[in-house]
Amino acid sequence: MRIGIACSAGSYKGVFVHGVLTGLSELESQVDIYAASSSTAAAAAYAAAGDLPFLKGPEHWKRMYTGYVASNYDVSKAVLEAIPEYTERLLGTLFSPDAKRFAVAVSAVMTKEAEELTQGPGARRLGQQLVLATRKRDRSWADGNLQTRLFQSGFPTAAFKLTARNMNEVFYATTRMLHAWKTPAWIDGQPYLDASYTCMCPALELAEMGCTEIIAISSEVGPLYRDFFQSFEIPSGYLDARIHLIKPQSELAEIGVDYMKVSDEGLHIAYDLGLQAGKEFAKSHTITKAL
Fold it and tell me: At what angle do helices 14-23 and 58-70 cross, to 10 degrees?
């Protein structure tokens, strides 16, 4: 049996996902791979490295938000400045022989026209148009111009490898939403966008890689969708895998944690809710009996 944990995007709502990862720590020895999209990449990477306590739970998200406010709400600047601070330690842990396998989802820009739009002055306008497209669940632009790619560590034969050299680029690219992030994202000289445009949570990708038990962690109360456009709900089973969903029981925005605005108290509450949900899953869910 191969066990995978897939962490969904959600900006600052990812603090709930972080809490769940901490609560699932007693399953850590049985997990084969951690995977993440967008803002949860750091927490998932530290979990894969066996070093999640280093981030100190909600304190990591406080630091990120404080940097965002200090940058005069320039999210690109804040993220680019924060990444080296939390990836420095990963250079000595994530790529060690003792670390779990790890994968980060990113949306690759596949056409020259899309490259000019997404990496040039028209990016913000396109991003706003794509936000409007979510109301119609219209992912036609993404289908024609983007493709999910997983950058992986611990996979010698992976087509796209996460390395010490490109890690910072990957961690920035997986978060870059067009309507708000000013700075273009490139990995190894190729254009990329936030994972969410094609892969909100890499649960199906883990199934395609051979995982048979997948724990998908969402930051939303409703269905967990495959992408930003909510065009396809991630099912409870895919290929040979069972997909177990952990999600909040109430809207995180109601307790002070929204996509781009949070309170210190809300971060602590959301993290604790995730922590409790992870612990309850580890104690009572059938996946533990199968192990």
Answer: 160
| pLDDT class of 287 with cuts at 50, 70, 90 | low
Is the per-residue pLDDT at 37 higher than 50? Answer: yes
Token pair in block for residue 42:
């750091």
> What tokens does 165 get?
């050299």
What are the residues whose beta carbons fall under 8 Å from the beta carbon of 93, sequence distance 6 or more? 46, 49, 50, 51, 99
Torsion of CA 117, 219, 44, 141, to 10 degrees: -20
- For residue 156, what are the contacts with CB-CB under 8 A and spacing of at least 6? none
What's the CA gap between 258 and 235, in Å, rounded?
A: 25
DSSP state letters, the chain: --EEEEE---GGGHHHHHHHHHHTGGGGGG--EEEEEGGGHHHHHHHHTT-GGGGTTHHHHHHHHHHHHHTTS-HHHHHHHHHHHHHTGGGGTTTSTTSPEEEEEEEEE-SHHHHHHHHSTTHHHHHHHHHHHGGGT--HHHHHHEEEEEEEES-TT-SSB--TTTHHHHHHHTT--TTT--S-EEETTEEEE-GGGT-SSTHHHHHHTT-SEEEEE-SSSSPPBSSTT--SB--SEETTEEEEEE--SS-GGGGTB-SS-B-HHHHHHHHHHHHHHHHHHHHHSHHHHH-
The domains located in the chain, with CATH, are 3-279 (3.40.1090)
Q: What is the per-residue pLDDT for 291?
A: 44
8 Å CB contact between 141 and 133 = yes
pLDDT band at 11 (very low <50, low <70, confident <90, very high): very high
Specify whether the CB–CB gap between 172 and 185 falls below 8 A. Answer: yes
Look at residue 26 in the predicted model and tell me its pLDDT. 82
